[in-house]
Amino acid sequence: MTIESTAPSYAPLLRWIHWTTAILFIIAMLIGLYCGLQSPGTSPRRELLEVHKSLGETLLFLTILRLLVRAVTKAPSMPHDSSAFVRLAAGLNHLVLYGLLVAMPVTGYLFSSAGGYRLKYFGMFDLPRLFAGNQVVAHLGEAVHGVLAWLVYATVAAHIGATFWHAVVKKDDTLARMLPPRSAAGSVNDGS
Length: 192
Prior knowledge:
Layout: H1 12-36, H2 45-71, H3 84-115, E1 120-121, E2 125-126, H4 135-170
Antiparallel strand pairs: 1-2
């Protein structure tokens, strides 16, 4: 079963997940960057890390939902004049973004769970600690999370840069695929 997209745009649910994920991902990334520059155990670093972790778990859920919806949804075609290199670069960038949207929350969870840190989802309930007290898992989770953060910065910058390149330089419909379809009402003849 395949759900057709509203050509030439992605299906509305995928567009909603994309923009919600983008906003939450950028907020989580900025919080993580800020907290990385602050001294451990200080306020507001502690409180912001709680928000960062909750955003990460939300992003993991949204990514799983997005992959499920994407599996049964037909994507709109890329602009016909897109080169093989552009298609390959776009595919790789999306693949890396999906991987990071899974790996970052998982490694953050491993680090927090094994390291004995709080795992309260937006202050409402505690997430289970599957690796409590395992210092090897804690150190591995922290190290991988830290290294992947740099890949996040580069990949997000490339994604946003490519979006601007398509919209401003190429002036093609790549960005329009992730926006609501233009309505015919916007081009009504005024009778002149």
